[in-house]
Amino acid sequence: MRSRKDNIFHGIDWILVLFYFIFIFLGWINIYAATISENQFDLLNFSTEYGKQLIWIGLSFPIILLILMFEAKFYEKYASIIYIIFLVLLAGLFVLGKNINGSTSWYAIGSFSLQPSEFAKAATSLAIAKLVSDKMFNLKKLSTQVQALGLLFFPAILIILQPDPGSALVYAAFIFVLYREGLPFYYITVGFIALFLFVITLILGFEVTLISSLVLFICILLYFIFYRPRAFRKGWIKIIGIYLMSAMFIFSVDLVFNHVFKQHHRDRFDIILGKTVDMKGVGYNTNQSVTTIASGGFFGKGFLEGERTQGNFVPEQKTDYIFTTVGEEWGFVGSSLVIILFVAFLLRIISRAEQQKAKFSRIYGYSIVAIFFMHFVINIGMVIGLVPTIGIPLPFFSYGGSALWGFTVLLFIFIRLDANKTYEW
Amino acid sequence: MKRTGLLTFLIIFIGVIYIARLFYLQVLDNSFNTSTLNNSAVKVMYDYPERGYIFDRNGILLVANQLSYDVMVIPSEVKPMDTVAFCALLKITKAEFIEKIEKASRYSTRIPSTFLQQVSKDDYASLQEILYKFKGFYIQKRSLREYPRSSAANVLGYISEVNETMINNNSKYHLGELIGTAGIEKSYEEVLRGTKGVKFIQRDRFNKEIGSFKNGLYDTLPISGNDITLTIDAVLQQYGEALMANKRGGIVAIEPSTGEILAMVSMPTYDPNLMVGRDRSKNFTKLYLDSISKPLLDRGLQAQYPPGSPFKVISALVALQENVITTGSSIQCFGGYKYGSGKSSFMRCHCETGGSPVALNVAIYRSCNSYFANAYRKTIDKFPTPTEGVNVWGKHAESFGLGNYLDNDLSVGQKGNIPNGNLYNKIYPNGRWRSTATISNAIGQGEVLTTPIQLANMTAAIANEGFYYIPHIAKKIKGKPLDKKFTTPIYTTIDKKHFKPVIEGLFDVFENPRGTARGSRVEGLEISGKTGTSENPHGQDHSIFIAFAPKVNPKIAIAVFVENGYWGARWAGPIATLMIEKYLTGKIGRPLVEKRMFEGSIQEEYDKQLK
Ligand SMILES: [Zn+2]
Fold first, then answer.
1. Quick one: pLDDT at residue B280?
2. Which residues pair with B357 in a beta bridge?
3. Residues 200-239 of B with CB under 8 A from A
4. Which ipTM value was assigned to this complex?
């Protein structure tokens, strides 16, 4: 058995690897389309963006091999240390970081920049997996809930302060992981109610929301008084408490939105909520990206045939808006195929995670699904005009070495853990 | 829900929503695909079509085009440059420069906007040499209007730059483009404007033009606007303008057998050429702000006055139709009509019939108030309540095209007013009113209001003995048939037989030695008509006249209105008959009358009102 164990490829899930290569390939040809210009064809030229991306793709193979070389146990054993190293690296940005586009999120090594927050996601996933997989850990207890949330809080707050709130938002995904592992459902409920109240308050204004929720509350109260008097006597404090909490939340949304947010933040929400239709000013990005996607039609315009892509009119097209290239050149057929691929990819990881014997592997698997899912929802949602402009990359598609390697690490650690599932730890 | 299922459910749910959204954007919603304009990768160049020419009914050219040169700007392509030199070149100030650039950028940074309109030919020559140095600016040739006859400004209207609300409501127009905003130019904008040609030019990411987009697949050539032949007789129109000199008012002349408008004069007017060129907006503002003589108001279409005596014809026709009078039944008039016990319940009359029997014919040519008041009162009192009576009477009047818009092809108009029973129920609550309260309607005073075009149309309906065609201004549109509604007769509610005696009366207005327009009689022409004086509480009464000729197969029906012209026979009568004479014979046999009209001025009267 020893020889089989020595083979680092033994037991790995080739389907996930196949997904990985498909994504990398599709991502690259779209980056190529988005960045090529005439008189310029040199695949390994470091001065072109598609050339750089190809080099980063090439460099991800040694990274993959390195990840697969370690024993699965290694990741569990050193999870806390890896986590702490990345907290230090994130904190170090405030001293040594390089400011690009207004955020100090980068370490510059020569002409090369690395973004630690892209790797911190993997580190945090490992740490959560280690913490929650402990036999003594019970997510029904408040103290352990606080512990888990605290673990997420530190990297998130460091990233917010860079400032890069979009990347920090991804950490909200861990609520799904914690829920899977026993966190009471009302956390999810509260999360969704908060999101719902947030959106409704922004659309209707806080006075209307407050009044309509008061009416709803009184109806509920009357229902309990007349039809469920016993339940009412037992639970009236809870009902009133929930209402007061909601009212406070509505107030604070209004407060934050109108007094803490800057105008450009507000504009982004207003565009999505249909309250502003300024297509030449703040709505420009969303308008351009939606128009570009829509112009693709059913079959798309064909590879390198998208004049909006070729004319380079979508801002940040190669990074956050790479999906517009898919939409324009490959049409509904191509873009819905990418969606289906992502859904299948995510479901595949879930199904592998559920088969893990080791709790650590399962939790880690859930963590990366949640992270990929969050990126998928926010990025594509933004590009097709359903989510406010929040700049985070589309996994494996968006241009950039750090993002690519970060997602590669995230995925292949799981592939390594998964390959070990039949062995004892 | 099982704990393991939540995330799976959400993933599939989001996947379905996103695919649905993509399906909507890429397959269902075409608005993005068709608007190549939104496509910033492609530069759009317009080729403006020539606007259609406008001719009068005999082929005389009324509106032509001249070439003009506009300086255009694409704000996103403007590079840092020597602004001082540029401003000097275009003869504008720095402040104007900034304002214009900002306005263009507000509209769009990528779509061209007009920067400076209508540069002179000399400036164009020097600009062409040097403009290439200023990136983002170029010269666009465009055709402008030209009015060879300097007449009929109110008919022709003018074109002006589209305003921003129009652009937002109608994607066909872009900033700086011209659109018909009054007269024919407005009502037939769609016909005249043509279709502009578009050239799409592909640009690369460096904004460099790299050739025709898709090999010119979507490029189009401009299509010239269609020419329009008007119903207007340019000679008659200009003659009418000359007759109305130094007076305020309107003339509308209609061909009864077709509803074609032969002349439509509004005074004071202006030279249409003022609305062209770089001084356009200065001139326009001056005309617009002239609140005293209101040259932009088309008095033939928009001025509402009580019609006065010409309306008595309607009162007579309605009474005949309702069988409350006959042509033979007569009354006696002793200087007026007493319709109540009070001292004020007396309508004075100047018919001077001295108690001899007044029947329909005499009543018309002597314009006897008492006769028509009596006929009106009998009509209303035929019905159980005065409300019903006034309503029936009003319906008859409205069938002559009064009291409502005529649904014609003119860009402006007014409804006028024909009162109904409800109006009086409001004035006299509890229904405490009788026919006598409304007696002034009988003689075209009271609540009745008409516009000159309505009066002209009413005259045409009388000339036709009971029907009219909607008065219209377009005779022929190249490549397009005339709207059917202009060739369909509209019948009044009065039987044909009742018109004969009335027309005899109108004829005697000229022919009877005691007719009220005897002085305006034209030898050899069989004119029928009616004088009128519209009471004006604010100053001197208005002078009104309606007429048509010849008596058999009428060729022209006319209404003339002269503000503060004292009485009908003083100004409106001679003007109407001169117009008829000019149109039917082409010459004037009464040079003295003509001279008096050309030179006559009521300016003194207008000045008085200012004090
Ligand atoms: Zn009399």
1. 78
2. B332
3. 202-206, 210, 213
4. 0.87
